[in-house]
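User: Quick sanity check before I run a bigger batch. Here is a single chain. Can you write out its predicted 3D structure?
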Amino acid sequence: MKRKTSIIALSIVAIAAVLFLINQAQDDHSPAEKSTQTSPTRSSQRQEASQASHSQDERKDREEIARIEQNKLTTFWMKNASAGFAIAKKHLIADLNLNAADTAEVEKIFVRREAQLAELLTAESTDDREVLKNICALLRNKGLREELASILSSEKLVAFDANEATRERETIEARAYRDMADLNAIVTLTDAQKQQTLAALIKNAPAKVEQEADARAFMTLNYGQMLTDVDSSSIRGLSNMVSASLKNEMPDAAIESSHYELWIQTNKSERIKNELSTLQNILDEKQLTRYREHLEKEPAW
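Assistant: Done. Predicted structure follows.
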């Protein structure tokens, strides 16, 4: 799990670096616009002109570097996204046993959705939160059912809904069993406690799965499908950031600030509170104390 965590950290740093270059290029202004002298000499005028020209050249260089890096990143993201769309399309066609005509229409849907994603990744926007929301929705195949309704028979749609329900149920159960294994590694449970705990974890799993879903989808842009099932603790930070961004709850503060650190610690305290609340009437006091100590030792992210 250390390797996966390192990959995630490096990716976030790389994206931040590219965004810094882009923002720097967009926000930079020529020194000629920032300062003037009331009575410049001819020599100082030439010097200022030379400095302004040099600064403009530097700005153009930065803009070009930012443009190149942005194009590289977008191309890389689209390559991974295309692979994900291809897998979803392949499974859909096979699971529903579509004929040639329906397959051709499904192909068109995915081509259109891929084009929409490409536009979102390259278009300028004043609402980053809405862009992120739409990107994640496309990567999660949200809205696909509505598009399929216009081309598939009612029988095929029923089969599609059944497959989606089964997939969702299996995802929820898998999450609950992973949480169960993690808990049992810290606290030894009796057979009766195992049954009660599993039932409680299954009840809470849908909210956990949904809370992480956008972050997992966003990760596929950088890593393809290989990390979509990575351990929840390894993507907790990214998941919290994506979720908070979509809800417009991110603190307006620098990452290294005390305000941001307080926000992180508050999230951790809330998470621990929720985890313990789920097990409050199942574990005894000794078990709860041991599990609380374990959770408190975990990284805030």
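Residues 8 and 82 are 21 Å apart (CA to CA).

User: Great, the batch can go ahead then.
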